[in-house]
Amino acid sequence: MKVRDLSDLAFRNLREAVLRNSLTTLGVAVGVASLVAMLSLGVGLQQLATSRLAKSGLFDSIFVTPKTNLRGPGGGPPGTRTPAPKARPLDADARAEIYRMPNVIEVYPQIRFFTEVRYDGKPFATMVAGLPESSKASGAFDGMQGSFFSSPKADEAILQAEFAKELNPQTTSLIGKDLVLRYAERQSLPAQPGDPADNSGGFSVVPKEKHLRIIGVVETEPASGFGGFASGRLLIPLPLAENLRAAQVNDLRDILRDSSTDKPTYSSLTVRVKSPSLVETTEDQLKALGFSAFSLLDASKSLRIFFSVFDLLLGIFGSLALAVATLGIINTLVMAILERRREIGVLKALGAADGDVKQLFFVEAGVMGLFGGMLGTLLGWLIGRSLTLGTNLYLHRQNLPGVDISSVPWWLVLGGIGFAVLVSLAAGLYPASRAARLDPVQALRYE
Amino acid sequence: MTELPPAIRLESVSRHYLMGEAVIRAVHDVSLSVPSGEFLALLGSSGSGKSTLLNLIAGLDRPSSGSVIAHGQDLSKMSSLELARYRRQTVGMVFQSFNLLPRMTLEENVELPLRLAEVDRSERAARVGEALRRVGLEKRTGHRPSELSGGEQQRTAIARALVNRPKILLADEPTGNLDSATGESILTLLREIQRNPGMTIIMVTHERTLAERFADRLAVMGDGQLLPNGAPR
Ligand SMILES: Nc1ncnc2c1ncn2[C@@H]1O[C@H](COP(=O)(O)OP(=O)(O)OP(=O)(O)O)[C@@H](O)[C@H]1O
Ligand SMILES: [Mg+2]
Fold first, then answer.
1. What is chain B's Cα-based Rg?
2. Average pLDDT over residues B1-20
């Protein structure tokens, strides 16, 4: 039989027992819907997690520190101590060199210092942190009041909400106002007259002030790769912070290490590469340069493993529902054979081959699968949407920004429908071959 | 006598059923030759094996032994696919209980064999119209079988059997469910069809008088075998 006649007959047969067939189709739809909903949840959560983590810079960042002598000064017995090769300092030269490495898009130090701020004539003590330009895209500033820094060197500040409330409970009124940052600038001391060889005998700390305009208030504490500004309550552009050359928390260590140059050294640098896949090679290169380097790549690997197991479990639960639907199809078609014995007999008497009868039942199963699949995918998408809606409603009540926890990509739509058709065809296998084997003489015996 | 090969030749055809230990000889050692263009009536008491024999000729069933040869082809040597093609192209069947599909209109019922034979859509309407005109139902094409009288339903079934232009028409008690006047009109129709377009007809019936009036020859069965008293008219 030609395809058109075959589908024609199949549709006609499906319409004849419309209630039973639509109930069966609905069964398939529910099975597919649960499968699609489960998987959309899996995909959505995975996308959410990976995009959040990718934005946060956790997985494309490498944390670089100078190699430290584990034993430290005076660690071992004096007799066995050999002068260890001096660890390479993490200074401006090193920073420039790292920046020139392939695939590196950003190298920044962590600048944090504790200082005093004057606002409205009152002093406040707080932690100031420098924000790299890239943190704008990290997602942490998505729901902020006001705006991000207008330029990487602007005299502007973003306040963390808790701190902003200390300044003024009405945080929105702070935006556009000025505050004064009081900080201590370190200045190298001129060489002592009696000690001409050593021109870096130390530095003095000079109190300074900087006027900053408040341009934004950020609600959540912006988390960053390696705590770059995690504990900062007053955030300023990183280049500005570097320019301030403020007396940093690690200065004391610099003194102990009796650095021979005037150049600032960094206790650590954060290196960002183009994509997480480049982290490993770059990490090795950094180690080859003589630094300590580590990343959270392993964490991302286990995250991927977690989600594939998660998807598998969700898929299994969804498939259980579809398995029940499969039994429904088998049952419906077997019942149809009993009911349509005579019709099958007539078709065979009129010259239908076993294959024609088989195909007819097969197409009927396939059509139920196709419609069930389409309806089910739609239903699954709706379930995913309403889960997202419900979650966002809850998050909104908690004053948290909304998220998309379910996602139905094209492959899931086509996969859902295709899977339903395949499963239905498999379910039609037994009834179809049984119908094809029906003995026409028995079926046509006059009753 | 012409030397034309017979339309159907049965050579010691048997169809046995096994019921536990017992063997039921529904058809046993039947040899029969039906010349092309003959109208043969198959008579016999209930259970004598008439339907079984007809189904063997129709290619719906296979003999336990012996061979059924239709227009030179041995059905017992055919694959099931070839048998299906034989049923589509060479034979048309009419049943006592009409066996029309109730949800289809007359037109669709008659079209069914054309679908199975993969006849072009463009050709189908004309063929269906021609067949329905042949049985005098051209005005009822859109009706469902249930909206027709028994005689009209049987005419539809005959149109359906004719639509693929078979060489052999097999009818199993076509008048069994009809009153005698309607039955007679159906037999008149079969007789006309035998002459134009020209066909071999084998009809199973209980009614000897009708068979004697319309058929060219009678064959009588008893206990699965042909009785010798069937003779040409
Ligand atoms: N599948 C079967 N299994 C066992 N016996 C069968 C089977 N089919 C038919 N028979 C037997 O074969 C014999 C012939 O049956 P058949 O239907 O050919 O008779 P018939 O001459 O057509 O009778 P009727 O005039 O009542 O239609 C009967 O005795 C019947 O019981
Ligand atoms: Mg019978």
1. 17
2. 86
